[in-house]
Every structure is written in structure tokens, then in C-alpha cells.
Fold this sequence. Notes:
By secondary structure, the protein is an alpha+beta fold.
Amino acid sequence: MKSKYHIDESILMMQLTKEYGVHIVNLCFIPFGDSAYSYQVNGLSGERFYLKLFDHENDSHRRGIIRLSYYLPLTWSIYHQGLFQNLTYPIKTLTDEFIVRFSDCTFVLFHFIEGQTLASAYPFSNKILKKIGISVAQIQQLTPYIDRSMLPIETYDVSFVPELEKCLSLLENTKTFNDYIQQSLKEKILTKKRHILVMINLIHELKGIAMADPKEWVLCHGDLWGGNMILQENEMYLIDWESVLIAPPELDLVGYIGEEFNVFFSAYEQQLGKSVTINLDVLRFYAYRHHLRNLTNWLMNILYRNLAKSQKENDLDMIIYHCMNRWDDIEPDIKVVDSILKTR
């Protein structure tokens, strides 16, 4: 989120001290991400924590709160059992809880990982690609050691499509918006409406193909982009596990299709110690769904959610420069992967 949550920060600090027993000196807002409000929390004795705050009035945040019930116990468990420690995990309250519900929000405190995310590190170097490939394999190797019953299972969900269609209908049926951001959105999106409808039809078709794939499913992080990775002293740390689920391995591979795939995939297979068969149609499903689901979230933010102007401006920018401009690359990138796999 680009703007702070509407709460008196002194009251929030007092509540943090009460719940966690740590005297809080100050909060530093981090204008990053859109699934929650983020803060760096600084304690009197030099402790540092990372705070995620979810607004009960935001439907996207409410879905995020539901996910807390499984990914917080998972990350806490795999860290404290020593299964995988290069990750962010939640701090428990004095009453041994993972979350705190306070006023009109829910918040979680995490341990703090030093360093910057890799959100601005694109294009990734071969060194980083290798580390990501190794990390993906390490996550999948955790599969036999976790309680799978506590995690969601891939359903190839496309339930966002009605919201996307609702947004398209509003843009098409509104002659002129008074809000310049919404008007700019209308002008940009409607030129691509036919393309969007084709992609909607395609993900339904690809969903059927993916569901018929008999491949064994594994633990997947679910959102391995640069903003959810921190490189610290040659070690890769993975944060924001809210999209974790049991799914086909392609889910965590799709972000690296294209020319970089060979370096990434070689490190991935080497860590696994075996060759892996890739279903290109499953990759295609995840690639198209990723962009359409992101598009839906940003459209909803601009058209329906009561968010700050700065957030809506950011989301319009994301639609134009981090979504729409990438759709035409999907099929060429899949062809590159196919070519790489055929020469291995």
C-alpha cells in the first residue's frame, strides 16, 4: 500500500507493546505491496520487526486474513524445526497467538530480515537466477516433512473472472468518469478488451488441460517475484508466504520463462538431483492467470475500493507497465522454454 493505514500510530505502538511485551520506539511505514499495510517496527533495545496490517474494510485484505490461518503456522514450524530457515516467520504474542485483532484491523508481527528486496533488481543476474532455482527446489523438498492437510490444494481457481468482467462492463458502460485516473483507465483498458476476453477464454481451456495432468504436486511458495526475495550476504531469503499451497511445480517456475529459464532451471534440477518434466500448458495457464488476476485486483482497487489517490495512481501504472505490456511476451517465452527443454 502506498499510503499509511488510518490509525493513530501511538495507539498501535501501545497495542504492540501490550501484545508482544516489547517496548516500541517507533514505526516506519513501508510503501510497498498491496495485500496489506507494511511497517518496520523498532524496539527500545534495538529489536526490529516487520509488521503487516490488514484492513477489515478492504475485501482483498479480508482474504489475506483468511490465509493467515495456514501460512503463519507453516512458516513458524519449518523455521523452528530447522527444515528451512531462509524465510520470514511470525512472532508469537505473549498469549501464544500468531495474530492480533484490534479495532478495525488485524496485524501480525514478523522477525526482520536485513537488506533490500529484489523488486528493483530486474533483469536478474545468473547468480541470482541460480539462487532462486535452488530455493524453489528446497521448498519443494520440504513436501514430505510438512502437514499437507493444513494447506490449500491447487484448484486452478479462476473465480476472479466475474469481478474482471464486472470491471470491464463498468468501464464500457460509463461514458465519462469524473476521476481522471478512472478515465485514463477506461481509455487504456477498452483498447485491449478483445484481448482480455480471449485470455479469459484461454485460461478456462487451459484449466481443463492442467487438471488432467497426473504430475505429483509439491509445496510451492506461490508468489516468487523479486519483491518477495531478499539477498543478504550471499543468502537468499523468501518473504510473504501468503500464496503458499500444494500445487504442480510449474507454479513456482512460471516466473522465469523466457531466455533466463535455462540458468534458473538447471540450478533447480541440480538441487533436486533429478530431471523434471514440464507441462507447457500448465505453465501457460499460470502465466495468463497471473496477469488476469493481477489486472482484476488493480481494476477493483481503482474502480470499487476506497483507496488513496496515490494507491490508485500506482495501480494504474502497474496495469500499464507491469501487466498489459507483458501479455504479448507469454507465447514467445513459452516457445523459448520448449526449445530449451528439447535441447537438454
